[in-house]
Input
Amino acid sequence: MAADQRGKAATLALRRRLLSNSCRLFFPEDPIKIVRGQGQYMYDEQGAEYIDCINNVAHVGHCHPLVVRAAHEQNQVLNTNSRYLHDNIVDYAQRLSETLPEKLCVFYFLNSGSEANDLALRLARQYTGHWDVVVLDHAYHGHLSSLIDISPYKFRDLDGQKEWVHVAPLPDTYRGPYREDHPNPAVAYASEVKRVVSSAQEKGRKIAAFFAESLPSVGGQIIPPAGYFPEVAGHIRRAGGVFVADEIQVGFGRVGKHFWAFQLQGEDFVPDIVTMGKSIGNGHPVACVATTQAVARAFEATGVEYFNTFGGSPVSCAVGLAVLDVLEKEQLQAHAACVGSFLMELLGQQKAKHPILGDIRGVGLFIGVDLIKDEATRMPATEEADYVVSRLKENYILLSTDGPGRNVLKFKPPMCFSLDNARYVVAKLDAILTDMEEKVRSCETLRLHS
Ligand SMILES: Cc1ncc(COP(=O)(O)O)c(C=O)c1O
Output
């Protein structure tokens, strides 16, 4: 039977029988069966069209024809490993280098964000001769054992924090210890990293790296105050460590103003290692690590070969090149800046109307809407966020939540998300919130009168 002729219930039953329950579904009570994607839209088996507000992997749009064609054409000619000379891999490294600061000029190609972060960890340890890692609270950096260890979002539910991992507070100026009224939150949050480093050093530990997403997404679509990364990098480098910017969710023009999200931190700020994934291949498994000559030379000095069977294959590189071509041709970075600020403006107008909208933060097409119980406590409105997401789904809009309180609606749509999509989604959100407030009011009235 063709897979798209199978009914949703039959697919679900098979999945329950054959796949682990650890592999979760969106909307587990009523999962969606998606059979087709195009641009910023996904279609279920009945042909219903959903607006995809969350898939930052389908960066230039689901199934972009130029990306699909690039993969197909290269697949017809050759797909092999990177031990042969091939133009795609060098052309791709060259094109990526043109987007990055000059110092980040050595490239490794891999298949997933997790592989990229794991290699970054190896590079950092080899270069520094140190072992320990400082991470931000609530961070997620991947599913390999090494990365679960540096992902508080995961290890807090497992066997806890390893002695070589040190956690600094999220630079969250909305809910963290230093807020929007602090005179210099960048320095204050960076001092927290310094404190964490000093306390590790007092125990005889040595710092190899600081890992952070350039914009912490799992942490709740956080925008670190500008200047925070350079300050942190100073503390980390003085301790002998390197700065790793995880751009897996937020790179490739998503932030609009810049191609890389770390560039929001200041024109002169250059991480020692940058990791890329997800959007880099528009759905094809591609990932990359970019670093400096110095770090790469230290890694080479071991004499041990770095080999990755699929990483940097002619097909992966053809796909990566096509993604860069589409970004340029369709001017998607500028588009993200324009649509993102329009969406922020529309959401901002809603804030005046709906007290549950505590904070609206974002840059380009990376936006978080922080739902709160009340302004005084800023307590996360977790159940309400969940309810809003399920009502949006009934309206064929796919959105999800993030953050430690699972109360932040996260927008990170394919970059072709349009002004019309923004208008439509915000109008639906407005209607759902109005209806929700109405229901709460009638319950309160009932309670008063009973
Ligand atoms: C910030 C970040 N880093 C790393 C990863 C791991 O990437 P992958 O799932 O491709 O291994 C993820 C995945 O969600 C991520 O969000």
Summary: The two ends are 57 Å apart (CA to CA).
